[in-house]
Specification:
The complex is a heterodimer of chains A (181) and B (254).
Chain A (H helix, E strand, L loop, with lengths): L12 H25 L2 H17 L10 H20 L23 H12 L2 H11 L5 H8 L3 H19 L12
Helix pairs in contact in A: 1-2, 1-3, 2-3, 4-7, 5-7, 6-7
Chain B lengths: L2 H10 L6 H9 L1 H21 L7 H46 L2 H8 L15 H9 L13 E9 L2 E10 L2 E9 L7 E5 L2 E7 L3 E7 L7 H13 L22
Antiparallel strand pairs in B: 1-2, 2-3, 3-6, 4-5, 5-6
The chains are: A mainly alpha (181), B alpha+beta (254).
């Protein structure tokens, strides 16, 4: 194996920016990736690919506030690219992954565990805008831009996503309709 | 905003701080209760989505990035090194070429001339006996008639070569002639170095170098023809050597 010399102590501003970006957003990116693909190892790969791509075009990032949406966009593209390459099955977990090994973890207890299970069963078309809203902190308008949809359609998806989640949590009873509960 | 619209908005954007939304919430007890429930659900949802992040994830990404970057830098350095090496090779090649060229016949002939420059000013023909004697000093026997208007002859060392240095005049223009016995050249070629122009011509057993620094166009062809006839002989003329043997025209005597 080729030996590399000692790491330089001088860190340039671009490198510092990247390190800060990575430390600040790796966690959120992982969670988003995890809920997108449903696999721990794949989610970690997606985070790494996303950040390495971000490094290559780091000069495009002008404002710190834009960092998270920017990274989420890169991650979504990486995820889509991965599906194109590997023709992987989209994880529509509402078809029965309740006992998936990923959930057999110590965290699986109480309401959070039920909610995670319900989330894993949420169809992909509802899960993605919900993740962008809850984990990405995006508004309906921003999600619409990100997904290439109309804001009204996104509003509907978000509404239905929550209704579907509650329905799953209630054991599949009929979803609460638009009327008052 | 009515209650139905409020609930729709609340389910779609629980975190919204839109004025009309907040206004309805504050004016409707049932919707305020729904607001509280919705926000409690959002907190639970957020907690549920915040799965534990694998330890060292950021550090592994940074390591991958730094390693990739260092390899990139090393590749760049290797490329730069290869480029520098090729430049050095080019410079070295050029120096080698210059070294080689410094020992070429044109370079040696031109370098020889400053010490013999006054020979070009001589105008009085020296005659055939003196010319033959000059060649004889180099062990060369002429096989043909000597050219007319030869004004100078001398046995000169030119670099590693022992030459016969002559000056021929063609239409009044002096042309220095160096006969290099035993020197093989593949073909005739012209050269131009500084103020000197010249031509090298292969003969049977040596090479003839002609050069001048005078203005005008010297007739090197005529000069070469004259000296070829004298050194190599004309037609079937046989060479004679001092020892009586016949090793060949213009050949070096043993």
């Amino acid at each position: 194996m080729k030996r590399l010399g000692p790491v330089s102590l001088v860190v340039n501003p671009r490198q510092r920016q990247f390190e800060a970006l990575t430390r600040a957003h790796a966690g959120d990116l992982y969670r988003y990736a995890y809920w997108l693909c449903g696999q721990d190892a794949l989610a970690q790969d997606l985070v790494q690919e996303t950040l390495l791509r971000a490094w290559k075009s780091l000069d495009a990032l002008r404002e710190a506030d834009a960092a998270k949406p920017w990274l989420l966009t890169i991650l979504r593209r990486e995820h889509a690219r991965l599906y194109e390459r590997k023709q992987m099955d989209v994880v529509e977990l509402d078809e029965g992954l309740a006992e998936d090994a990923a959930w057999a973890s110590p965290e699986r207890h109480g309401d959070a565990a039920e909610l995670r299970e319900a989330m894993s069963k949420l169809p992909h078309r509802y899960r993605e805008p919900l993740l962008l809203q809850v984990l990405g902190g995006m508004s309906c308008e921003e999600i619409a831009v990100e997904l290439g949809q109309q804001p009204g359609a996104v509003m509907t998806q978000l509404f239905r996503a929550r209704q579907k989640l509650k329905s799953i949590l209630q054991g599949g009873r009929a979803e609460v309709q638009h009327g008052l509960p | 905003m009515d209650c139905l619209e409020f609930r729709r908005r609340l389910a779609a954007e629980p975190q919204s701080r839109a004025a009309e939304l907040l206004s309805h919430r504050d004016s409707c007890a049932a919707c305020r209760a729904a607001w509280e429930r919705a926000h409690a659900f959002e907190r639970e949802l957020r907690d549920a989505l915040e799965v534990p992040v694998p330890a060292g994830l950021a550090e592994r990404v940074l390591l991958a990035q730094a390693t990739g970057e260092r390899r990139h830098v090393l590749r760049r350095r290797r490329t730069a090194f290869a480029l520098a090496a090729s430049v050095l090779v080019a410079i070295g090649g050029r120096l080698a070429w210059r070294q080689l060229d410094a020992h070429s016949l044109p370079a040696l002939a031109v370098a020889h001339m400053p010490g013999e420059i006054r020979s070009l000013d001589l105008t009085r023909p020296i005659g055939a006996p003196a010319i033959k004697a000059g060649f004889a000093d180099r062990g060369v026997t002429l096989r043909g008639p000597t050219p007319a208007d030869v004004t100078y002859v001398h046995d000169c060392p030119v670099g590693p070569y022992k030459t016969v240095h002559l000056v021929s005049r063609v239409d009044g223009m002096p042309v220095a002639v160096l006969y290099v016995p035993g020197k093989r050249v593949a073909k005739a070629s012209d050269f131009h170095r500084g103020s000197w122009r010249g031509r090298i011509v292969p003969l049977d057993h040596g090479a003839l170098v002609m050069l001048t620094n005078r203005a005008g166009t010297p007739d090197f062809g005529a000069v070469a023809t004259g000296w070829r006839a004298a050194i190599d002989g004309m037609g079937t003329a046989q060479a004679t050597t001092r020892g009586g043997s016949e090793p060949g025209p213009g050949h070096l005597a043993p």
